[in-house]
């Protein structure tokens, strides 16, 4: 494979894994709560800014990687309990509107606290240099992103498929009423899943920081690719999230290289094609 | 019924007379309310009557806006100002609708959202469409030989078009077609079972709503003299949704009330503080949590459809 | 030469994973007949209905309506061919008044429903048919009441009314007397008995008194298969039928 092509594939993989972390929470929340959480991108943004702050205070990227997602998870839990819980019975529209309002709130809060300029996040020293891989020159940080993303994918799979907690989550995704009937404290699980999803989004934001920097509209702008990943992969499916994000990651990266005038359109075309033949997404449950 | 007709006539008269007493900035606000009001109205037809919640309505607003900008620069006239953008939006709605009608609920919301952002991407990256900055210098057409460049004349033009569209949408909701849409909203499965080709009706509603939204977009271009990719932005769709909700779904007058509330709030708050986005966002969060019927619904003491 | 049956099912099968909900059912209902399908719970009766109306696709077999195959057609297309169905659990338009409920059903076949302008009142035929149907099902006094505000018995009547309003040639009724008191059941039975004979009936029922009053022929379904068929007296005397019902108690 020519070096340039290989470099692009790696870039696409790195971006894909960022999307993966972001979309896992979204797809679980969707699958369980039937909530279009438009504010999910806001957790991504909060993660980046929280990471920024931890690095500014403590000077350590790895600490930020640990602390920021936890902080975002707490925020996510708080939002779920205060704003979303009253809306579960009300259907998608109210949830869409409320989370849309939250986007405004979060974006403006961030702008107020950290200012509206783009803030760059320094790459950790360990991965500050570039690496030559079979002729392709690629920042070693991107390789880290890929490795980390892969590790997270495995860890998540183990969590969801092999633990009791994962079984509860899967049951909740499949049928929340039944789970409640079986004595599981569904509302606590919902809060947990929400916090978990928000935390993952925050994690994605911290990791994306050195690549994308931090700016207030970043949450809103990453939301659409994340939604497309979830739609393409299928609601509620971890496998779908992975497959969808890798596909979309490659599509968008190569689109930028080959068709710069229409790069963003490519992912929509991909989405439309997949939905034409499989409206439930690649791994989603069949609709109706 | 007579009360409603009286209210409508009163509203039209008030709007028509407004420029006589008010300065140019309030008049511009009112015109913006009229345009977004009809945009929200078209969404209410889809949401409040057919029960299809779309988050991609800005697609048709944007198609109308850009089509008007492109054609008015070359061939200004009433046809290019209104009919051509309407036709373009109709075609767009047909294509997007064809894909989106196959799903419903959350999937429908997301699909319509994604499609509208596709248009945003195209407009943003295409130099022919002005890329990030959009198109400027769009002239207003001559109507029946008269120029509508002045504030007063444009106001009259806007009022007539918006009024006619509003009347049209209102008649549609009372028509046999409108009743079918309501039936689909109430119980889609039963409508299928008694023999209605539900998919076709939903697509027709989608195209109708999209067409009216396209005219709204065209009017916006004529109002501003320019167009930018923001017309396609999903926040534009979201704002229309909020306007419908504030005013109350399924109540056509509510769309205009909601548009007024949103635009006035935004104008008022942003003149006092830079943090207007925060306040707007909080307002909507609180609104959804505590006043689900919207203004009109709360006024009437009940929510949703009217027999 | 005998005319073709109104409805013919040929080895109709529907499986869900390992479960044979409907297994090779062959059935033939001549026009003007009143056929009742009985069988214990889980016998596949409602699944059979869902197959006939097109809500479910069969795994195998054919459905022939008035000599024309309709297997695989979407529900609205089958409804347009003169088949109509009422549901075991009410499927009404709760926030609309009774008259509008019936009018919607009655207007389903007409082109008039596509009119964007014009008034619903001008579509005279569906309105008239809606009123007739309301009369037939005993809701003539309740036309302005919202469907959601009716009593349960009245809602069941409306449920049947919606199916009737489309002027079907074949009417499928899924447990029309489900959940009804004895008086309501008697009223429903009289109403069904009074229907014109040119509407062929296919009814799922549990209440044997109703079956006795209405049925020309009875088909017994068990574990998705036809156990036996015949007049009610014949079926009642069949020891296998007795066992099936006793065994599943």
Level-2 CATH architecture of the largest domain in chain C: 3-Layer(aba) Sandwich
What does the main sheet of chain C amount to?
6 strands, mixed
Looking across the biggest beta sheet of chain C, what order are the strands in? 6-7-8-3-9-10
Q: Which regions of chain C are unreliable across 5 or more consecutive residues at pLDDT < 50? A: none
The count of β-strands of chain B is 2
Total number of distinct structural domains of chain B: 1
Low-confidence stretches of chain B: 301-307
Q: Would you state the CATH class of chain B?
A: Mainly Alpha
Keyword list:
heterotrimer, B: 307 residues, mainly alpha, ABC transporter involved in vitamin B12 uptake, BtuC, 13 helices, 2 strands, 76% helix, globular, disordered C terminus, C: 249 residues, alpha/beta, Rossmann fold, 2 domains, four-stranded antiparallel β-sheet, 10 strands, 34% helix
Give a verbal description of the structure:
The complex is a heterotrimer of chains A (288), B (307) and C (249). Chain A has 288 residues and is mainly alpha-helical. Chain A is 75% helix and 3% strand. Chain A has one domain. Chain A is built from eleven helices and two strands. In chain A, strands 1-2 form a two-stranded antiparallel sheet. In chain A, strand 1 and strand 2 form a beta hairpin. The mean pLDDT of chain A is 84. Chain B is mainly alpha-helical. Chain B contains 13 helices and two strands, in the order αααααββαααααααα. The longest helix of chain B has 27 residues. Chain B is globular and about 55 Å long. The C terminus of chain B is likely disordered. Chain C has a six-stranded mixed beta sheet, sandwiched between helices. Chain C has a four-stranded antiparallel beta sheet with strand order 2-1-4-5, with helices on one face. In chain C, strand 7, helix 6 and strand 8 form a beta-alpha-beta unit.
Describe what is shown at a glance:
The complex is a heterotrimer of chains A (288), B (307) and C (249). With 288 residues, chain A is mainly alpha-helical.
Helices and strands in order:
The complex is a heterotrimer of chains A (288), B (307) and C (249).
Chain A: H1 3-33, H2 40-58, H3 61-84, H4 92-114, E1 130-133, E2 136-139, H5 140-162, H6 164-174, H7 176-181, H8 186-212, H9 218-233, H10 238-258, H11 263-277
Antiparallel strand pairs in A: 1-2
Helix pairs in contact in A: 1-5, 1-6, 1-8, 1-9, 1-10, 2-3, 2-4, 2-8, 2-9, 3-8, 5-6, 9-10, 9-11, 10-11
Chain B: H1 2-21, H2 24-49, H3 58-74, H4 78-100, H5 105-125, E1 142-143, E2 146-147, H6 151-174, H7 176-186, H8 188-193, H9 198-224, H10 234-247, H11 252-272, H12 276-290, H13 294-300
Antiparallel strand pairs in B: 1-2
Chain C: E1 7-16, E2 19-29, E3 34-38, H1 45-53, E4 60-65, E5 68-69, H2 75-80, E6 83-86, H3 98-106, H4 124-136, H5 152-164, E7 170-174, H6 182-193, E8 200-204, H7 208-214, E9 217-222, E10 225-230, H8 232-237, H9 239-247
Parallel strand pairs in C: 3-8, 3-9, 6-7, 7-8
Antiparallel strand pairs in C: 1-2, 1-4, 4-5, 9-10
Helix pairs in contact in C: 3-4, 3-5
């Amino acid at each position: 494979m020519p070096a340039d092509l290989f470099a692009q594939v790696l870039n696409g993989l790195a971006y894909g894994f960022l999307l993966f972390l972001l979309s896992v929470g979204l797809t679980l929340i969707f699958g369980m709560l039937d909530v279009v959480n438009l504010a999910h991108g806001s957790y991504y943004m909060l993660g980046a800014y929280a990471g920024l702050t931890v690095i500014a205070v403590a000077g350590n990227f790895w600490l930020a990687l640990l602390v920021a997602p936890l902080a975002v998870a707490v925020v996510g839990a708080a939002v779920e309990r205060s704003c979303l819980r009253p809306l579960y019975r009300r259907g998608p529209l109210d949830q869409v509107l409320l989370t849309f309002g939250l986007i405004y709130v979060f974006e403006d809060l961030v702008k107020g606290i950290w200012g509206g300029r783009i803030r760059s996040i320094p790459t950790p020293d360990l991965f500050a240099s570039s690496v030559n891989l079979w002729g392709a020159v690629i920042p070693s940080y991107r390789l880290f992103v890929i490795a980390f993303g892969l590790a997270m994918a495995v860890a998540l799979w183990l969590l969801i498929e092999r633990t009791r907690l994962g079984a509860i989550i899967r049951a909740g995704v499949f049928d929340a009423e039944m789970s409640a009937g079986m004595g599981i404290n569904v509302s606590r699980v919902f809060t947990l899943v929400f916090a978990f999803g928000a935390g993952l989004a925050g994690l994605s934001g911290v990791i994306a920081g050195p690549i994308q920097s931090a700016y207030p509209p970043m949450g809103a702008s990453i939301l659409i690719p994340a939604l497309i990943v979830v739609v393409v992969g299928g609601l509620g499916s971890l496998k779908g999230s992975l497959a969808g994000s890798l596909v979309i990651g490659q599509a968008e990266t190569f689109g930028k290289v080959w068709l710069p005038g229409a790069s963003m359109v490519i992912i929509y075309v991909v989405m439309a094609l997949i939905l034409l033949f499989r409206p439930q997404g690649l791994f989603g449950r069949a609709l109706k | 019924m007579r009360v409603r007709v009286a209210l409508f006539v009163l509203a039209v008269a008030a709007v028509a007379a407004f420029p006589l007493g008010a300065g140019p900035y309030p008049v511009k606000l009112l015109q913006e309310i009229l345009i977004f009001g009809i945009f929200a109205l078209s969404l209410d037809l889809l949401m409040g009557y057919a029960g299809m919640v779309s988050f991609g309505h800005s697609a048709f607003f944007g198609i109308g806006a850009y089509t008007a900008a492109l054609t008015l620069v070359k061939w200004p006239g009433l046809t290019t100002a209104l009919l051509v953008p309407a036709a373009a939006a109709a075609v767009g709605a047909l294509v997007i609708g064809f894909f989106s009608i196959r799903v419903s609920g959350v999937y429908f919301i997301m699909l319509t959202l994604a499609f509208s952002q596709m248009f945003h991407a195209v407009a943003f990256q295409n130099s022919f469409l002005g890329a990030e900055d959009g198109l400027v210098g769009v002239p207003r057409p001559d109507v029946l030989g008269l120029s509508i460049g002045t504030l007063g004349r444009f106001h009259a033009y806007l009022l007539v078009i918006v009024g006619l569209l509003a009347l049209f949408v209102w008649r549609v909701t009372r028509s046999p077609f409108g009743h079918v849409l309501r039936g689909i909203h109430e119980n889609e499965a039963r409508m299928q079972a008694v023999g209605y080709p539900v998919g076709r009706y939903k697509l027709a509603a989608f195209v109708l709503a999209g067409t009216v939204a396209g005219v709204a977009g065209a009017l916006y271009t004529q109002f501003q003299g320019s167009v930018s990719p923001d017309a396609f932005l999903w926040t534009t769709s979201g704002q229309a949704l909020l306007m419908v909700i504030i005013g109350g779904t399924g109540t056509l007058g509510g769309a205009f009330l909601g548009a007024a509330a949103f635009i006035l709030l935004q104008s008022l708050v942003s003149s006092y503080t830079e943090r207007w986005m925060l306040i707007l966002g909080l307002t909507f969060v609180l609104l959804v949590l505590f006043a689900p019927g919207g203004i009109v619904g709360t006024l009437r003491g009940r929510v949703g459809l009217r027999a | 030469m005998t005319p073709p049956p109104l409805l013919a099912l040929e080895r109709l099968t529907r499986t869900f994973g390992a479960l044979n909900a409907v297994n090779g059912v062959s059935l033939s209902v001549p026009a003007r007949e009143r056929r009742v399908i009985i069988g214990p719970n889980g016998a596949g009766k409602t699944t059979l209905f869902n197959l006939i109306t097109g809500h479910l696709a069969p795994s195998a077999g054919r459905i022939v309506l008035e000599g024309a195959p309709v297997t695989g057609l979407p529900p609205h297309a089958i409804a347009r061919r003169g088949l109509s169905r009422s549901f075991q659990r009410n499927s009404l338009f709760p926030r609309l008044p009774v008259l509008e409920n019936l009018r919607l059903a009655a207007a389903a076949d007409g082109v008039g429903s596509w009119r964007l302008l014009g008034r619903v009142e001008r579509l005279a035929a569906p309105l008239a048919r809606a009123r007739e149907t309301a009369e037939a099902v005993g809701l003539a006094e309740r036309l302005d009441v919202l469907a959601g505000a009716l009593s349960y018995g009245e809602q069941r009547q409306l449920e049947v009314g919606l199916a009737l309003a489309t002027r079907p040639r074949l009417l499928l009724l899924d447990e029309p007397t489900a959940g009804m008191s004895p008086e309501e059941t008697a009223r429903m039975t009289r109403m069904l008995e009074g229907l014109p004979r040119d509407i062929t009936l296919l009814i799922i029922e549990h209440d044997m008194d109703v079956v006795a009053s209405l049925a020309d022929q009875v088909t017994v379904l068990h574990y998705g298969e036809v156990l036996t068929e015949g007049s009610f007296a014949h079926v009642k005397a069949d020891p296998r039928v007795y066992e099936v019902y006793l065994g599943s108690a």
